[in-house]
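Predict the 3D structure for this chain.
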Amino acid sequence: MRNIVALATLVLVLATAFDASAQWTSRRVQRTGGELTVGGGLNMCMDSGDASCDDMDSSFAILVSPGFRMSDIIGFYLDANYSRLGGDGIDSWAHLSLMPTARFFALLQGAELFFGAGVGYARIDSEVEGGGDYSWTNYLNMKLNVGGAFKVAPSMDIGVNLDYIFNADGAGEVCTSTGGEGKSCEDNEKGDLIDLLQIMAFAKFHF
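Done. Predicted structure below.
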């Protein structure tokens, strides 16, 4: 599944890059300055290596992304993603990521397409029925990002955003409760972790 997603993303990236180049040479929209994106939608579990989603149920995802548009075709953002999953035997499962992200844009008439990539912090906190709780952290996690938006006001767009978050093949630190306030932390040696696919509607504000 991961290979299919990566291939589809590569195709979309190349197509968008060619389109962005053509738009850049033919138009000067001058879309620069500060931006704030706020969105929410669906968070879905994705199999990764030995990590299976058989017992995991989809839940919600939230995105807050302030940033600065350097030009019509490139911007830099700080993406904060918070999401949850459910499932049998799970009291709670939450994922938080905070990733500097570069986005590249293809400008259309009254709309835009974009793709991007981010690298940064990610954390999973989980409580299992009868099995205590654990947390996982990684400071070099990665995500890929595609989407599109259209203008509804001079300073506002609405659109759809898709994030695929790779949970670093399990790399990182795992902490397990030892009773009371105590925790035991060590490098993760328990194998792969699931990835996440997040599909969200968003509003983007220009400043």
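The first strand starts at residue 33 and ends at 46.
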